[in-house]
Amino acid sequence: MEQSAQQAQQLDHLSSAPEPPGSPFAAFGMSSFGGPPSASPPEPRPILELAGEDLEDELDALSDWVDDFLLSVYGAEVTTAAPWCLQWQEHDDVVAWLHALWLAYQQHRDPEAGLSGLFVWHRDFLTHAMAAIRAPGGPLSACMTSPDRPAHRLLPGPPPSVRTEAASTPATDEPAEPTS
Questions:
Q1: Which of 21, 83, 85, 152 is least buried, going by the fewest C-beta atoms within 10 A?
Q2: Which long-range contacts (CB under 8 A, 24 or more apart) does 102-107 make?
């Protein structure tokens, strides 16, 4: 019954008259010739630039997508050649990769992406991101390589550059006193 109701709603929508066309310049981001551009949706921000509640909300939504969709479909077996971490949210680089992948997924599944949108996502985003994240020497390489032995370890990153170190430490040399 529910499916029949959904189909009836869809048929009603498809049989209704199309909405009147907007400006002929709408495709170019202009509401009318000579008018100001229409307001565009806010630009998505990389997750590592977020803080507080915004970060928590985005990380929760990302975690739902990763756990409920990405891993169930594309997770593959955990091996030394394809490690995984049950605490992947603690790996900032992995969070950044997965967030970018999720944003691309949302964009490419949108009807405006066309019929090949998800193919483009698979080809240009999914394969590369998963290979980088789960590489044997990648960010999760010190974590779980066997489902029977869960493990988590954050690998230390490189130290700051010499220039950054020099700028962050106060000078200890006393200025020389002028001689007369």
A1: 21
A2: 102/62, 102/65, 102/66, 102/70, 103/44, 105/65
Name the more confident of 50 and 139: 139
Number of domains the chain contains: 1
Candidate from 84-93, 119-128, 146-155 with smallest mean pLDDT: 146-155
Q: Three-state SS for 41?
A: coil
- Find the mean pLDDT for residues 62-68: 95
In a domain, 119, yes or no: yes
Beta bridge partners of 82: 79
**164 lies in a domain?**
no
Q: Is residue 81 part of a domain?
A: yes
- Write the CA distances from 3 to 7, 9, 10, 14, integer angstroms: 6, 10, 11, 16
C-alpha separations of 5 from 11, 15, 104, 143, 156 in Å:
10, 15, 33, 48, 56
Residue 114 lies in a domain: yes
For residue 179, what pLDDT is reported?
56
